[in-house]
Design a protein that fits this description.
The complex is a heterodimer of chains A (about 450) and B (about 450). By secondary structure, chain A is α+β, with helices and mostly antiparallel strands. Chain A is about 40% helix and about 20% strand. Chain B has an 11-stranded mixed beta sheet, with helices on both faces. Classes of the chains: A alpha+beta (about 450), B alpha/beta (about 450).
Chain lengths: ~450, ~450
């Protein structure tokens, strides 16, 4: 059987970098090159690290706890030396290596053993084609999660990673906008272990594993080696064999004191962890009698499940579920904004859905209100009042006006082009500011026009 | 000092001296423009007149070139960094500027502070102003020499194993190695991070104490730094009773040992000090413990000089002593050694630290010669072991993390000799009080 293990790198969700107070904002999409920098994160001669960002340390511990790890309260920073254009100090500050006590060890998450979890700093971004280096990224806090080689297929890896990220979104520990990176190690029976470095999406991870397994089956690896995945050519290529393995010459960091995290703090953090997706699914199904499919969608995001649990106190689940899983997620997809980043106040959401449930406004009007809630919701009371569904008599009156104004469409209808009624319904909606009930309007129009 | 002479006049006087003698003595690597310096001096004089001046108004500083001063070259006396212009001020520099001190320029030193003689500079050896044929000691060679040559009032150096006290001793000036962690290292280009401390060199104890009082204190930019109390400078020179331990160690040069013993004896009689021998078992391990630490940490610290950012790759552009330490550090840190040597050295460092702590329960001060040898002639071939032995008596204070001062007490063969007065961690007050008393004793003798 194939044995697969992972080393996953994710950006910890912090405001400042690990050893300086520069903002963690990087990537072409968000900022110009080399603006969030200082003597510390550019490794100027003589600069020294500030004490490590305590939020980063806390989040690393939180992640370790979620992954069922034993926590090391003593944080001893290490210098991992290597020479590369993106590494301004000539070493990376990390809590890994032979003399380190990683933040968390010996965990298990959804059937997969976790060897260790530790923080380290990100290097700068180097463009080998132009030689340019952007230090905005340099010194950002990363978490590295190392699993045991417990996976046996690409599908298993991808589905586990999905669960991992949804669990981590519950504690808002990882910044997903900044992406993930993984090193994947693969060995097949009788062969040596091969590591594929630096794959940066779920899709590529899946492809790389499948391609590498096929390659190894044809050509059994005799020595341990490190390879890289070429996405365009769909092949993995050799970087180095174990004989030329790097010696990082680890030493403990003399510029930082030993940090000790008190037992009580760790205990407190442990108690603060919310129920994670797998437990949550069971609770939702049992308590609200909803479908497993919906329970799974709701639990993918902590914000969704929180919104559901608050709103369901007032709104029936059968009304509520499509409004979250279809409409709200629709708004999130359309605007390309992570639903976790949308601030939807459960009170606002409840008011909106109660108005629908009680027939105060129609669904069209409700959707119109919801679509404005891109970054955050607002109190819908005013819009609900001004958007109240209007009476049948009023619909009839307005329908007559519309028919008089649109003679062409009326003729079309009468000459057999029945679809032109949709245009007429649209005109009524427009005139009533979407306050007319859709089905009622069709009924009225059909009645007047005569079937 | 500075009573009858304005800062402007003084800067002019120093610039003239430098102009006249720097070529021969090779002390300053870079002197700021006269125009800029005089404008700054005038501003300070205006402040003095209006009574709004800082504590260092009127003081002119030379700075070791491993300390960042924005706009000046922190070359570390090396070809590697000869074109490196500092982009920021070290914390100590910021503090000096805030108190109206004037930085006149950057002095020469041993390359990357690796050396005890001032001969390893890529820009030629520094000469001893007392006798230009002799080495000035090192590695803060130019810092000591600039003060001795009257090119400035005070200088900053860095001391990792004696690099301030050793040249202070050879040049006949005062040099202070503060308690580890009390002066921010932010902006100091590393030699050995667990041992490095910035400290002052001056022509008298009071000036050294004043400068140290200004530059020390906790700095969030140096995570290892700690807070300290203000020094009481008014107590300097007053008579105090001290329990003094004389380091029980035979050195080869009996003339140096005798000079120190005699002066201490006189002080004991004059000031009523209780003097007893003290033996520190592990002092013999100092050099063997020191070099693995320095090699390892220096190797790590120099990885950033890879030729990609600041000019030249260090292994290709440095001198033999720097290269020796890098290669040594690369060997010690190899994975196959599993960190044994470095961690063993850290453990012995801890032992030495504890031994001194326990000795300071019985003594206020521990006294010895600063350097066990006299300065040799520039260019004279000596072995690496001989060179390293210059620091045998200064290294222990770096390993123990305590404070020590070198005060000039006389001459042997026409070469200045310093007395080292060591005090427990954070006991700079006692150290300066004793230093000022010795200084007074020597100056009164001179007059008598």
């Amino acid at each position: 059987m194939v044995k697969i293990g992972l080393e996953i790198h994710g950006y910890l969700n912090t405001i400042e970098k690990l050893f300086c107070s520069c903002r963690v904002i990087h990537g072409k999409k968000f900022t110009k090159a080399n603006v969030n920098i200082c003597p510390i994160c550019t490794g100027q001669p003589g600069s020294k690290p500030l004490l490590p960002n305590s939020n980063a340390v806390k989040k690393a511990i939180l992640i370790s706890l979620i992954l069922g790890c034993r926590i090391n309260g003593e944080v001893v920073w290490q210098r991992k030396h290597y020479s590369w254009p993106d590494l301004p100090k000539g070493f990376q500050s990390t809590i890994s290596g032979p003399h380190a006590t990683p933040n968390g060890v010996d965990g298990k998450f959804m059937g997969i053993g976790i060897r260790e979890c530790h923080i380290e700093e990100d290097p700068a971004a180097w463009n080998p084609l132009t030689g340019e280096i952007d230090y905005n990224r340099s010194g950002s806090p990363l978490i590295e999660i190392v699993t045991d080689p417990d996976f046996s297929s690409a599908e298993e890896v991808v589905s586990w990673l999905g669960n991992l990220f949804s669990a981590l979104s519950y504690v808002k520990a990882i910044d997903k906008n900044s992406g993930l990176k993984a090193d994947v190690n693969i060995s097949i029976p009788g062969g040596k272990r091969v590591e594929i470095k630096n794959i940066n999406s779920l899709k590529k991870i899946k492809e790389a594993i499948e391609i590498e397994v096929l390659r190894q089956e044809k050509n059994l690896p005799r020595v341990e080696e490190t390879r890289t995945y070429n996405e365009e050519k769909k092949v993995t290529t050799l970087m180095r064999t174990k004989d030329s393995a790097m010696d990082y010459r680890f030493i403990s960091e003399p510029d930082l004191p030993f940090l000790k995290i008190p037992e009580e703090v760790i205990k407190k953090m442990k108690n603060s962890i919310p129920e994670l997706p797998q437990e949550k699914i069971k609770i939702l199904i049992k308590k609200y009698k909803i479908d497993k499919t919906y329970a799974e969608i709701l639990t993918k995001k902590s914000s969704l499940v929180e919104l559901f649990e608050e709103t369901v106190k007032h709104v029936k689940p059968e009304i509520l579920i499509p409004w979250i899983t279809v409409e709200l997620l629709g708004v999130s997809n359309y605007n390309k904004i992570d639903v976790d980043e949308m601030e939807i106040n459960p009170e606002h959401f409840t008011k909106l859905l109660l108005a629908v449930q009680d027939g105060k406004i129609n669904e069209l009007k409700a959707k119109e209100i919801l679509r404005k809630w891109i970054e955050s919701s607002s109190d819908p009371s005013g819009e609900i009042d001004s958007g109240k569904t209007i009476s049948g008599a009023e619909i009839e009156k307005i329908s007559k006006e519309v028919l008089a104004e649109n003679k062409k469409a009326v003729e079309d209808y009468k000459s057999g082009e029945k679809s032109s009624i949709n245009f007429l319904i649209g005109q009524v909606m427009k005139k009533t500011n979407k306050r007319a009930d859709f089905n009622k309007t069709r009924e009225v129009l059909e009645k007047i026009l005569g079937k | 000092m500075g009573i009858n002479i304005t800062t402007t006049e003084k800067v002019k006087k120093y610039l003239k001296e430098i102009e006249k003698k720097n070529k021969e003595l090779n002390i300053f690597l870079e002197v700021r423009s006269e125009k800029e310096l005089l404008e700054e001096a005038r501003r300070v004089d205006d402040k003095i007149k209006s009574g709004r001046s800082g504590r260092l108004a009127g003081y002119v500083f030379g700075i070791k070139p491993n300390i960042n001063v924005v706009g000046l070259h922190a070359s570390c006396s090396s070809k590697v960094l000869e074109d490196y212009l500092s982009t920021y001020d070290a914390t100590v520099i910021k503090k000096i500027k805030d108190e109206d001190g004037i930085i006149i320029g950057m002095v020469n030193s041993d390359e990357f502070a690796c050396g005890s003689s001032g001969e390893t500079s890529a820009f030629g050896p520094v000469k001893n102003p007392i006798n230009p044929k002799l080495i000035p000691g090192g590695s803060s060679s130019g810092s000591a020499a600039s003060v001795a040559a009257r090119f400035c009032d005070v200088a900053l150096g860095s001391d990792t194993g004696g690099s301030i006290r050793n040249p202070a001793s050879h040049c006949g000036v005062v040099g202070v190695k503060p308690t580890y962690g009390t002066v921010s290292r932010y902006g100091l280009i590393d030699l050995s991070m667990s041992l490095d401390q910035i400290g002052p060199l001056a022509r008298n104890v009071a000036d050294a104490a004043l400068v140290l009082d200004v530059i020390r204190g906790k700095d969030e930019n140096d995570s290892i730094s700690v807070d300290v109390q203000k020094l009481n400078l008014n107590e300097l020179g007053k008579k105090k009773n001290f329990r003094v331990g004389v380091l029980d160690l035979e050195i080869k040069d009996k003339r140096i040992q005798k000079l120190i013993a005699d002066k201490l004896d006189e002080a004991g009689k004059k000031y009523n000090w209780k003097i007893k021998k003290v033996s520190i078992q592990n002092v013999e391990l100092a050099i063997e413990t020191y070099y693995p630490l320095v090699y390892t940490e220096f190797f790590s610290a120099t990885r950033k000089f890879d030729g990609r950012r600041y000019g030249k790759k260090i292994e290709e552009a440095c001198g033999p002593e720097v290269l020796r330490r890098i290669i040594g550090g690369a060997e010690i840190t190899k994975a196959e050694h599993e960190g044994r040597n470095y961690h063993l050295a850290l453990r012995v460092k801890k032992l030495i630290e504890e031994e001194y702590e326990s000795a300071f329960k019985d003594f206020d001060l521990i006294v010895s010669p600063t350097v066990p040898r006299l300065a040799h002639k520039i260019g004279e071939e000596i072995t690496v072991e001989e060179m390293y032995s210059y620091d045998a008596l200064t290294i222990p204070s770096n390993l123990a993390g305590n404070c020590a001062i070198s005060v000039p007490v006389g001459f042997v063969d026409g070469v200045p000799v310093g007395m080292q007065i060591m005090a427990d961690k954070f006991n700079e007050q006692k150290m300066f009080e004793a230093g000022a008393m010795i200084e007074k004793l020597i100056s009164e003798e001179g007059r008598g």
